[in-house]
Amino acid sequence: MPRIRKVRVLILSVSIALTVVTGTALADPLVIEAMGLDVWHVGQLERELRNANVRDTKLDHELQVVMDRATIHKLMLEDLVSRRLTLQEAAQQKWEMNRNRDVLVNHLKRNRFGPTMEAKMAHDLIVMASEFKLSNKNPIPLAELCEQYRVAYGVELPGGKNFRYR
């Protein structure tokens, strides 16, 4: 007899609890969400988690591409300043590597001088070399880079051999 009584009390308690939770859910669904009992949206939350993981992987890949491009750019600039590459070689390589990047193309069109996009890239490299040379022990003189520009592209940079950036 006592055992049957415990079962009845348990069944009654569970049914009362379910009635209270159901009533609360119908009255204010936000309370159920706050309690973490909204099992109806688990599938949606799992999809959102998968989508977030996919975005995270994509962003990690894009970050790696940007980091690789920055490393290549720095090495190319070091080779230019150390005279292992000529200005024209560096400009050709950098233009081939970046010709499909709209942001860079727009930057070159608006801010750099030259008859071709490669020449504008060379001008951009000269500007960067003028900032970079402070960290190199034996930098190439800017006048030499300006002369390479004139020979390679047939025009002289504004300011000529006395080119100054800033």
Please give the count of helices: 7
Helix content: over 70%
User: The biggest beta sheet, please?
Assistant: none
Shape: rod-shaped
- Mean pLDDT equals 83
How many strands appear in the DSSP assignment? 0
Order of helices and strands: HHHHHHH
Rg (CA only): 33 Å
Which structural class should the secondary elements be placed in? mainly alpha
What percent strand? under 5%
N→C terminal distance: 96 Å
Instruction: Please mark out the parts with pLDDT under 50 across 5 or more consecutive residues, or reply none.
Output: none
Q: Can you put this structure into words, describing what you see?
A:
The protein has 166 residues and is mainly α. It contains seven helices and no strands. 16% of the residues are buried. The mean pLDDT is 83.
Quick recap of the structure?
The chain is mainly alpha-helical and about 170 residues long. About 75% of the residues lie in helices and about 0% in strands. The protein is built from seven helices and no strands.
Properties at a glance:
166 residues; mainly alpha
Which helices and strands, and how do they pair?
Layout: H1 2-27, H2 29-35, H3 42-81, H4 87-98, H5 102-111, H6 117-132, H7 142-153
Helix pairs in contact: 1-2, 3-6, 4-6, 6-7
